[in-house]
C-alpha cells in the first residue's frame, strides 16, 4: 500500500512538472532568443554517444546533465574528467570535472563544474581598431551541486542546483537555475525504466560592467559625462525531458539497452532522441559501443536547419575492472556531427569505486 501511495504521489509530481513546462513552453518564433545556451551542451561522453536519449537509465555523474535522478545509482564514489572541442574546428574548449559520493544507503550528492574557454581574443576599439591593446578570454562556467535519493526500489528522484557565470573583459552576468528529475524502474529484472526531468529553470540574467559605460561630451557645459547603457535581460533555456528504456539482457556478459526520449524546448525546436548502448564484459574488462540520433523539424534541410548539430552521435568506452568489488577505471569517447563545423570530439576518464 505504501508503494502505491508513493507511486501516486510521484505521478502527481510528474503531472505538476509537465504543467509547469507549459508555462515555459515556447514556439519556433522564439528560437535563439534565450541566453546561457551552454546549459544545453552535454559535457559527458557516455551519454553523448546515445544522443542524450538516456533520460531513464544514465547513472552516476553523467545523470547530472541528463536526469539528476540517475545520480542515485552511484555505487560509492565516482570521479570524472572530460574534454570537448566544442563546435569542432571553432577552437572552443569545453572542460568538465566532477565527483559523486554516496553518503547513505539511499542518498548521493555530487559536485561538478563545466568551463567553456574561447581562447585569447585581441582587444580592439573604434578609435584603435588594430590589435595592439592585449587580449581577453571570454569564459562560460557552470557550477553544479546535485542531490539524489532512492525513495523505494522503484522510485528515484533528485535535484540539481546550478550557478551560471559568463564574462568577457569588461562585462559579466551571473545567474542560478535548478533541475529536477524522477525515475521509475519496473520489470522482473528492472529492465524497464521511465524518466522525466525539468531542466534550467531560474530567474532571468543580465549583463553588467564597465563595458556598458562610455565617456561623452556634454553639449551645454562642454564637460565629460559618463553615459551608461541599459542591458536587456535574457531568459534561461528551460526544457522538459521525457524518456524510456529497455534492457535486453542476453546473458551475464552481454547487454543491449534501447532508449528513447522527447525534449520539449522553450527556445528551440522540440527534439526526438533515440540511442543504442551495447555492453560486453570479458573477465576484468567491460566494453560499450554506443550510437544515437537526435531529430527535429527541418534537420534534413540545410536551408531550414536551426541547429548546428545535424543529429548523428556515436561513441565507445572501455573499463578495467579492479578488485573483488570490481571498481572501474574507464576511458571514453563520443562524437557529434556539426555540419560546417566538422566533428565534435569528447574524451573522458572515469574512476568508479565500489
Please sum up the structure shown.
With 354 residues, the protein is mainly beta. The protein has helices at 2-24, 45-48, 63-66, and strands at 77-86, 92-102, 107-117, 121-122, 135-136, 139-150, 155-167, 172-186, 192-201, 205-206, 213-217, 224-228, 233-234, 239-249, 254-265, 271-282, 285-296, 312-322, 327-337, 343-353.
Could you walk me through the main structural features you see in this protein, from its secondary elements to its overall organization?
There is one protein chain. The chain is mainly beta and 354 residues long. Helix content is 9%, strand content 51%. It has 3 helices and 20 strands. Strands 1-2-3-6-7-8-9-14-15-16-17-18-19-20 form a 14-stranded antiparallel barrel. It has a two-stranded antiparallel sheet with strand order 4-5. The longest helix has 23 residues, at 2-24. It is elongated and about 85 Å long. The two termini are 33 Å apart. The relative contact order is 0.18.
E-strand count: 20
Question: Spans of 5+ residues with little confidence (pLDDT < 50)?
Answer: 1-26
Radius of gyration: 22 Å
Q: What string gives the helices and strands in order? A: HHHEEEEEEEEEEEEEEEEEEEE
The portion of residues forming beta strands comes to: over 45%
SS field, number of helical segments: 3
Strand order of the largest sheet: 1-2-3-6-7-8-9-14-15-16-17-18-19-20
Structural class by helix and strand composition:
mainly beta
Characterize the biggest β-sheet.
14 strands, antiparallel, barrel
Question: Any idea what the shape is?
Answer: elongated
What share of residues is helical? under 10%
Provide the residue-averaged pLDDT: 88
What is the terminal-to-terminal distance? 33 Å
Amino acid at each position: 500500500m505504501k508503494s502505491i501511495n508513493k507511486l501516486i504521489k510521484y505521478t502527481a509530481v510528474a503531472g505538476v512538472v509537465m504543467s509547469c513546462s507549459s508555462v515555459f513552453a515556447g514556439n519556433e518564433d522564439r528560437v535563439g532568443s534565450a541566453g546561457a545556451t551552454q546549459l544545453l551542451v552535454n559535457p559527458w561522453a557516455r551519454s553523448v554517444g546515445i544522443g542524450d536519449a538516456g533520460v531513464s537509465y544514465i547513472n552516476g555523474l553523467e545523470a547530472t546533465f541528463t536526469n539528476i535522478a540517475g545520480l542515485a545509482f552511484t555505487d560509492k564514489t565516482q570521479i570524472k574528467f572530460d574534454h570537448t572541442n566544442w563546435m569542432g574546428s571553432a577552437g572552443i574548449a569545453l572542460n568538465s570535472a566532477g565527483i559523486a559520493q554516496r553518503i547513505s544507503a539511499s542518498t548521493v550528492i555530487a559536485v561538478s563544474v563545466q568551463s567553456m574557454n574561447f581562447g585569447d581574443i585581441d582587444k580592439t576599439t573604434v578609435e584603435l581598431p588594430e590589435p595592439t591593446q592585449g587580449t581577453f578570454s571570454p569564459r562560460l562556467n557552470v557550477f553544479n551541486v546535485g542531490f539524489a535519493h532512492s525513495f523505494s526500489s522503484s522510485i528515484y528522484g533528485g535535484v540539481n542546483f546550478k550557478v551560471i557565470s559568463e564574462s568577457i573583459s569588461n562585462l559579466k552576468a551571473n545567474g542560478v537555475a535548478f533541475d529536477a528529475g524522477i525515475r521509475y524502474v519496473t520489470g522482473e529484472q528492472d529492465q524497464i525504466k521511465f524518466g522525466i526531468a525539468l531542466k534550467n529553470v531560474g530567474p532571468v540574467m543580465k549583463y553588467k560592467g564597465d563595458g556598458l559605460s562610455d565617456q561623452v561630451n556634454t553639449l551645454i557645459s562642454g564637460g565629460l559625462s559618463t553615459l551608461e547603457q541599459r542591458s536587456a535581460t535574457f531568459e534561461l533555456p528551460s526544457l522538459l525531458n521525457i524518456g524510456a528504456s529497455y534492457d535486453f539482457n542476453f546473458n551475464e556478459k552481454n547487454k543491449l539497452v534501447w532508449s528513447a526520449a522527447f525534449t520539449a524546448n522553450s527556445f528551440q525546436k522540440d527534439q526526438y532522441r533515440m540511442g543504442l548502448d551495447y555492453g560486453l564484459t570479458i573477465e576484468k574488462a567491460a566494453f560499450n559501443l554506443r550510437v544515437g540520433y537526435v531529430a527535429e523539424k527541418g534537420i534534413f534541410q540545410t536551408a531550414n536547419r536551426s541547429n548546428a548539430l545535424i543529429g548523428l552521435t556515436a561513441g565507445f568506452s572501455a573499463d578495467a575492472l579492479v578488485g573483488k568489488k570490481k571498481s572501474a577505471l574507464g576511458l571514453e569517447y563520443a562524437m557529434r556531427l556539426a555540419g560546417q563545423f566538422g566533428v565534435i570530439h569528447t574524451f573522458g576518464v572515469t574512476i568508479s569505486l565500489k
